[in-house]
Amino acid sequence: MNVVAPDAAAASAVAKPQDRLKITEVFLSLQGEARDAGWPTVFVRLTGCPLRCQYCDTAYAFHGGQWWEIDAILAEVARHGARHVCVTGGEPLAQKRCIALLSKLCEAGYSVSLETSGAIDIDGVDARVSRVLDIKTPGSGEAGRNLWSNLPLLTARDQVKFVICSRADFDWAKDVVSEHRLHETCDVLFSPSHAQVSPRELADWIVEEKLPVRFQLQLHKILWGEEPGR
Predict the structure, then answer these.
(1) Which end of the chain is more exposed for a tag (fewer CB within 10 A), N or C?
(2) Residue 87: in which H helix or E strand, if any?
(3) Residue ranges per domain, the chain?
(4) Torsion from C-alpha of 196, 197, 199, 201, nearest 10 degrees
(5) Is 32 annotated as a binding residue?
(6) How far apart are CA 65 and CA 24, in angstroms?
(7) Residue 215 phi/psi, 5° resolution?
(8) Is 116 marked within a binding site?
(9) Is 58 annotated as a binding residue?
């Protein structure tokens, strides 16, 4: 795990609370998902999440972390020298000051994406950010947390992701895409929950149904498995 440098942490300790965020890690890797898959990307992983999806692979970000001044986060991102930045979690929008961080990253000239569960209002997110909205399927155990009022806010810059845990999840997601005509607004991504649905199985379903969605695998998992910070 590649966390922010200790001297930045020391500086953050004296920052005003309104200028700080709790961070689990900051690291450079390849983006493994969505539209920017394959690009070297700096990931800023915020601590904490109000959801408990049964397939979650970042439970280590639920607790702990360190408080960082937003300017210190920006300095650490700059140190890695990549154009793309992804703010993720946990659930990053659970920390209200995430909105300020996203805007400052945009102002610094980065190509910025936000990975969010869709359980929190996205209306205040800077319009320059690509919001990757993870709509929770019934198989996640958290479908009741979906904030459906987020969907009309989506634009062509944004992306919607469904993690498919079963054929029932697939049919449910297919109906959501059709009902809200999501494919006409933004990219729609279907991913398999590997312990429950094989990649080939999901790919076959998409082809058979001729769905206007993009099949995706997690590139970072193929390369590095479950290693944190990769």
Answers:
(1) N
(2) strand 84-88
(3) 6-224
(4) 160
(5) yes
(6) 4
(7) -75, 135
(8) no
(9) yes
144 is in an annotated binding site: no
Is 38 annotated to bind ligand? no
Q: State the pTM of this model.
A: 0.90
Q: Is 57 labelled as part of a ligand binding site? A: yes
Of the candidates 133, 36, 27, 38, the residue with the CA atom closest to the CA atom of residue 73: 27
Number of helices (H), then strands (E), in the chain: 6, 9
On whether the 6-224 domain is CATH 3.20.20.70, my answer is: yes
Residue 66 annotated as part of some ligand binding site: no
CA atoms of 3 and 65, how far apart (whole Å): 10
**Any known ligand binding at 56?**
yes
* 186 assigned binding-site residue: no
The reply to whether 49 sits in an annotated binding site is yes
Q: What is the CA radius of gyration of the chain?
A: 17
